[in-house]
């Protein structure tokens, strides 16, 4: 009998052998095509060869140490970017691949986009090149201690001093302190500060101002500004999210970012022409978060699938005397494989969203903002749904690893902590569902008023509500389990459910409920609509991408993943298909059977799918999920580097720090012996 | 208008004023009565006055620092325990209250119980007092790198050398290394090692042996033993979970723990009389985990409720110009208040389990093991359900805190990381559901064979399946929403659902499915049964504890929490009540309405319930959840202690460590400037 270690390598080889398609054919899809993949794989190799980005020690480091490691990364990143002239896309991938939020991350992902979109052309000519070259390092200072994303409630003020032609920036209260601002705490020398613009006592609402924070000469904080790092967080430990308070800080009038609004030398305020254009940034970030969700879910699935393929526990096969591969238990398949299916669904919806956003951006340059609403609503809905799905999914995948999932060496914990922030930032997930539902409700009212109205495909189904009596009598047409696999049956079911929830929301509103009493209805509806469009995007994405004959094997395999996604989602939401009689009990049973059958169908290809995402071992940084399956050896190896085992904490004879002072007195009986207290009182 | 800080104090006072009962009346319940509460509150004060247990710095410390802080805690804990003669219950509470796993935690919670239950009386006479006084510090070494809870697959061997009257302990393979053993890595000088007992080549299966690990004189590891700390983990960072490998380690024959099995000088093996008695330990720990779940859920709810009462965001009241208390949004109520209801449900089921365990223990001393099966099954089922509910619930509560929930200062993260281990240890949660379902299935078969069979109350409902045709026609009798509040209606619904799932499992088995193909059915059934008994325990617990007239206000308030628990659970599982037609669509609508109504009913008492658990601010260690509601001030205060803001990381002029080397070259333009690459190649 081979040792457990050798068995793991046999198991992983056997898994690879049974895959029905070539995983390498799929990988380019996730890198944006063959050519891009070649480039990005070169970039990965470059980063792997640079010692400052090494991550072998990462799991042993406390926050201060992680921050100290991040500063050399900042410098080396900029050097390499400049030396190789990395494209913006490559720069972004660089920072994804090093898998740590270096403290200039938000300079590039928030400050620069805000500067580019909000500064006037003249301002950009001056500040743009400085910021792009990191002479100016900036942060985006919106959130305050007491105020989240609602710009209207910010307390920081920028008051015009007409005489001196300056703005005076103030944080009048504790709760007005800027808080959560990445790159602010220690690194940034400028901030794009959102502050209430005040002229002659009149409040014009929040506007962005470029405020110098630290001396460009020696980095000392400028007078009137208190800046601090805001302390430890769940994740993003290398990032200096910061706290800042302003006390009569003066900046030139020209430091207001003046692309959309302006204030003249005379103190005259001019309104923006398109007020909503100033909000484009959040939409862009939300779109990114959908792709980020897909990547993160795929990462968790890769680790979980590989480890559950080489981990053997429980039932013993009498012929081989081997325990069962954990991945062969339905309970494990049921928890991991749907996550794989969600990863694919999220990938396809990410593409869909990217394309919509690109079209919107192209239109804007032509002055056409017609897509703004759709981009806003769909990026909100998908962000809300996909970040939650992924945040919960990673944790579920971690739990499938058994005890070793609790070790940092699992590679499942550090990136999950980082990811957990996404459910809150750029619009709290529950809150975002209101935007989606309000939009659908409006479309419904519009189409009732005007039944000939053209609705774009993802919400076209709302038309079915116009003839409500016949809508109410809609029933699912599936007579067999096989019917249940048909795209028309599936889409009709999801459409019916979402439409019903729109109708119910409208009824509730009509019967006098205030909008904020309808939170739960909005949450339910937004989820139903998003689940529907994700399935539609999955179908369309598949058709679009695997239509050549040689890709048919691939197509069939991914189609099984699609069915799993559909059935699992239906099963999770089963009551919503049952409660108005749309599904019969028999159809509900089809759904449950569909889940079981799909799990069986996907199981043989599980490792192939894990491989297809193309993650490197360096990136995964996981003892349990590496390509070669040597989980136990790697776990044991990694313990060697644990600081508690090294000099300073364990001496040459193997005795732990503190033994003489804290343990020896106990072991040698130099502490008063224990005797249970007599009487009740302490 | 008051400042946000003052407003927070006004808000929390207003919340306290609107509570319909006196929270202080409830607190003793959670401490086990008035008298115990007085004692334990004294203990809390004693601990708070001891500097080594101070937790102000905790969130800033990396793992090595946390471990270094834990050693003085170990010594001081033992000194105080001995000095004051703390009872075992008080000692246990001591370690709960300091809220950190000190590295001797498992000496007392695992090693000592194993020693007491598995060592013979003669062995106990020698080792017991030494272990109780920490001269022997022990760990319980069962889990191996490649093997979890299945004793039968352990690889570590103990081979009898008859000639020298010794056991020879070996770890023959990498995967046989002991792993995850708390207190092993650095602290323990003995281990109760589970190893395959081998005599003359015959394998008698796993048995426990007392193996010295480190010299009692100077703590150096003994020859033939490699011991290491196993590295960083999700939580339990102060604990030295360890790795050990044995190479021909010799111990006296008498070091086998011989209460149940014995091996004589001649090498003759004697079997235990009651084989299952050796497994009592896990059941005890599982029972504790139910209580631990309740406590942890209550803690998360306390923090979330207090902060959401003082946090104002979103809609503005025109009269007061105040934003809405976050706790007034249904979306927030829907995520926090059901957790409160689950905390109560878990508390009552914890009591029920404690009582059953106490009865079982009392019986055992009389040689009666009849309750073993029940204790095993119910502790498994409840542990599986309650730890998952709580692990997920804490995270949900954290997300309700908005952005500040991501700060360690929220007080929601550190203890959650610790708690997350419970879903895996002492029986992985998904796995445990098989025990519950197998038991129910057996009862079903028994009662079908013998319809007169007496079933104990929590599974009595199975009898209804005997007349299956009339069972199949059962329908929920609720005609109004009010009917739905009736205990008989509620319990009947949960009984019907669980019984149906038992029947379906039996059918699936009859139709030829292997047991391990029925994982999903087992998971579903176990959950249904546990949800049912939790509701029954809630009802009974309420009746038992609040039956005096002066407690009627309390009773009414907790009863609303009970209804919320019921409706929320029903809504979560709605499809399982609908899919066989037991609920009609109208009844499903009652359930959804019941959730909304219950949220409204519980809302005014939310803060009262948060207060009633009696947590001290020291224990909560949360900027957001302290009793006085001063959330923003505390958050700002806590940033002062962040090491990045202190000497070593920030100099006197406010400049960060590493500026000269890593930032100045960028800011001062000493790095090659950026120019986008020409041509595609990297």
Could you explain the architecture of this structure?
The structure is a homodimer of 682-residue chains. In chain A, the strands form 4 sheets. In chain A, strands 1, 2, 3, 5, 6 and 9 form a 6-stranded mixed sheet that branches. In chain A, strands 4-8-7 form a 3-stranded antiparallel sheet, with no helix packed on it. In chain A, strands 10-11 form a two-stranded antiparallel ribbon. The first copy, chain A, is globular, with a radius of gyration of 28 Å. Chain A contains 22 helices and 13 strands. In chain A, helix 15 packs antiparallel against helix 16 (552-572). Chain A has helices at residues 4-18, 27-31, 34-48, 63-84, 88-98, 105-118, 121-132, 280-310, 330-365, 372-399, 414-419, 429-449, 468-472, 487-510, 519-545, 552-572, 574-578, 585-602, 606-612, 617-620, 631-639, 659-667; strands spanning 138-141, 157-161, 166-170, 178-181, 190-199, 202-212, 225-229, 242-246, 249-252, 262-263, 269-270, 312-317, 322-325. The first copy, chain A, folds into 2 domains: 110-273, Butyryl-CoA Dehydrogenase, subunit A, domain 2 (Beta Barrel), CATH 2.40.110.10; 281-611, Up-down Bundle (Butyryl-CoA Dehydrogenase, subunit A, domain 3). Chain A has 682 residues and is an alpha+beta fold. The mean pLDDT of chain A is 95. The termini of chain A are far apart. The interface between A and B is large, with 161 and 160 residues.
């Amino acid at each position: 009998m081979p040792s457990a270690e050798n068995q793991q390598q046999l198991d992983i080889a056997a898994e690879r052998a049974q895959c029905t398609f070539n995983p390498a054919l799929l990988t380019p899809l996730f890198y944006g095509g063959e050519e891009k993949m070649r480039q990005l794989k070169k970039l990965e190799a470059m980063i792997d060869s640079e010692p400052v980005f090494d991550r072998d020690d990462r799991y042993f480091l406390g926050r201060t140490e992680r921050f100290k490691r991040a500063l050399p990364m900042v410098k080396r990143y900029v050097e390499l970017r400049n030396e190789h002239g990395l494209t913006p896309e490559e720069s972004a991938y660089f920072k994804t691949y090093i898998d740590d939020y270096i403290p200039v991350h938000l300079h590039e992902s928030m400050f620069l986009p805000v500067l580019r979109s909000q500064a006037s052309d003249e301002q950009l000519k001056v500040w743009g090149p400085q910021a792009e070259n990191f002479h100016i390092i900036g942060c985006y200072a919106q959130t305050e201690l007491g105020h989240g994303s609602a710009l209207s409630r910010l307390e920081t003020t920028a008051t015009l001093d007409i005489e001196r032609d300056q703005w005076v920036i103030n944080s009048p209260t504790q709760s007005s302190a800027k808080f959560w601002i990445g790159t602010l705490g220690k690194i940034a020398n400028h901030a794009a500060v959102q502050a209430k613009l005040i002229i002659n006592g009149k409040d014009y609402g929040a506007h962005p101002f470029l405020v110098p924070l630290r001396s460009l000469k020696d980095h000392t904080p400028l007078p009137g500004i208190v800046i601090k790092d805001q302390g430890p967080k769940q994740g993003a430990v290398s990032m200096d999210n910061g706290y800042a308070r302003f006390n009569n800080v003066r900046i030139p009038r020209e430091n207001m970012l003046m692309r959309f609004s302006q204030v003249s030398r005379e103190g005259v305020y001019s309104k923006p022409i398109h007020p909503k254009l100033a909000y484009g940034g959040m939409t862009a970030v939300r779109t990114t978060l959908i792709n980020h969700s897909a990547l993160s879910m795929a990462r968790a699935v890769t680790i979980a699938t590989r480890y559950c393929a080489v981990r053997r526990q429980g039932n013993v096969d009498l012929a081989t005397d081997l325990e069962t591969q954990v991945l062969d238990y339905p309970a494990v398949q049921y928890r991991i494989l749907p996550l794989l299916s969600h990863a694919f669904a999220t990938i396809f919806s990410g593409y869909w969203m990217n394309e919509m956003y690109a079209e919107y951006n192209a239109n804007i340059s032509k002055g056409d903002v017609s897509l703004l609403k759709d981009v806003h609503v769909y990026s909100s809905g998908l962000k809300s749904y996909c970040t939650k799905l992924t945040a919960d999914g990673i944790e579920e995948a971690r739990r499938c690893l058994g005890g070793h999932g609790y070790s940092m060496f699992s590679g499942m914990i550090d990136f999950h902590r980082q990811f957990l922030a996404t459910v809150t930032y750029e619009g709290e997930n529950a809150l975002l569902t209101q935007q989606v539902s309000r939009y659908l409700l409006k479309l419904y009212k519009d189409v009732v008023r005007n039944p000939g109205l053209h609705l774009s495909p993802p919400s076209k189904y709302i038309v079915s509500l116009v003839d409500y009596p016949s809508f109410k009598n809609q029933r699912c047409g599936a007579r067999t389990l096989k019917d249940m696999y048909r795209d028309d049956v599936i889409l009709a079911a999801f459409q019916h459910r979402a439409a019903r929830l729109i109708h119910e929301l409208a009824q509730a509103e009509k019967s006098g409920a205030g909008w904020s009493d309808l939170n739960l209805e909005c949450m339910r509806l937004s989820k139903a609509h998003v689940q529907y469009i994700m399935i539609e995007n999955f179908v369309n994405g598949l058709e679009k991408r695997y239509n050549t004959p040689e890709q048919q094997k691939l197509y069939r395999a991914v189609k099984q993943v699609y069915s799993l996604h559909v059935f699992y989602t239906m099963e999770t939401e089963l009551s919503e298909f049952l409660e108005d009689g749309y599904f019969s009990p028999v159809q509900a049973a089809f759904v449950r059977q569909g889940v079981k059958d799909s799990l069986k169908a996907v199981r043989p290809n599980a490792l192939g799918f894990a491989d297809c995402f193309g993650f490197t071992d360096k990136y995964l940084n996981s003892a349990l999920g590496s390509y070669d399956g040597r989980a136990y050896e790697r776990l044991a190896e990694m313990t060697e580097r644990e600081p508690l085992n090294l000099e300073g904490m364990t001496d040459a004879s193997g005795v732990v720090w503190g033994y003489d002072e804290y343990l020896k007195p106990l072991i040698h009986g130099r502490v008063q012996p224990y005797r249970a207290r007599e009487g009740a009182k302490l």
